[in-house]
Amino acid sequence: MKNFNYFAPTEIVFGCGRVDEVGVIAAHYGKSALLVTVPEFPAVAPLYAKVKAKLKEAGLEVAHFDGVIPNPTTDVVTAGADLAKKVKADVVIGLGGGSSMDTAKAIAVEATHKGTAWDYLHYTPGPTEATLPIIAIGTTAGTGSQTTPCSVITKTETKDKSAIWHKNIFPRVAIVDPDTTVTMPHSVTSQTGFDAFCHNFEAYLSVNANPLVETLAIEAIKIVAEYLPKAIEDGANIEARSQMAWADTLGGLTNASAGVTLPHGLGMQVGGHCPHVTHGQALAIIYPEFTRYTYQSAIGKFAEVGRIFDPTLAKESDAAAAEKSCAAIDSFLKKINLWIGFKDVNVTKEDIRAIADCGQVLGDYKNNPRVATIDEMYDLLTRSYERK
User: Fold this and answer.
1) C-alpha–C-alpha distance, residues 218 and 331, integer Å
2) CATH number, domain at 210?
3) What is the pLDDT of residues 267-309, one digit of tens each?
4) pLDDT in tens, 53-99
5) How many domains does one find in the chain?
6) What is the rounded distance in angstroms from the CA atom of residue 136 to the CA atom of residue 170?
7) Helix (H) or strand (E) holding 96
């Protein structure tokens, strides 16, 4: 076995009804809380009210920044950080999907450091321990942000999407309450659920994978294969929601240690250049060509995952099962209504050229078992333009 390190300092508070504990948990970190969310809409209004009430019951002053947008930008982070400074926030609480949690992390940095959050990206020394404590409460099941040291943001004026990656932005506490996910519509359940698969599959494939990551990732992939279709079919199925919340959390833990690979590096550039495309959609579009590009460089791992999605592959050799895993993952995408191409989400061929040219901005592609050139990325993305 190779040498490896594993570091995951986030306290995980898991289970139905656990969001009720947010006030008691937040009170450990001070008296002033900044709640970070997307704008209120009917499905989340009761949850927002509950969280604010629990915080106030525990004696905290609560300021609410509700300016989060999908594919959050540096302008959004600065607006939130300005409010955090104004109210002298002691703790930042990200409530929502990955965008809300990532924005909360970036706000926690910018509110306590010179310059902006953009000055502390993954290739810099990163933020210091002055970063405000972060509590993450996910309302989707897929981003894994509640247990990662990652905050993905886009620089507004240049459409450059990058990330802070540093131990000081690990959330202190992740409240993983499946009850908060039951109002997700089918499309969001599908897209975020596929992201949970991708986090785990890519960490499993990563050149940085280790035995612990591989064990967690395989467990999560089995969960997604079984329970994501059930969660899409019946959003009130609390067992399916609970299982997906766990797979999501595992995806954060595997990603935090081993990172992700080629699809995420490209997918984040899709979001930077075409912010109307969700992260889950971008991954779904890229995956059919990605699997075919990569499988021969990781035969054993593709074979194992292929057999999860198609048990009949148990009778096949690893080489045959690995090749057929691509079609098995295609079938899963069709089953969860994500068999789409760039054309379906209004991404042009000119956009694809620009996305490919930025394909090596993030280092994720280096984690892939087969490392792609810019030309190979462009070819892969071009072949993802239209699905048949």
Assistant:
1) 19
2) 1.20.1090.10
3) 999 998 999 999 999 999 999 999 999 999 999 999 999 999 9
4) 999 999 999 999 999 999 899 999 999 999 999 999 999 999 999 99
5) 2
6) 9
7) strand 91-96
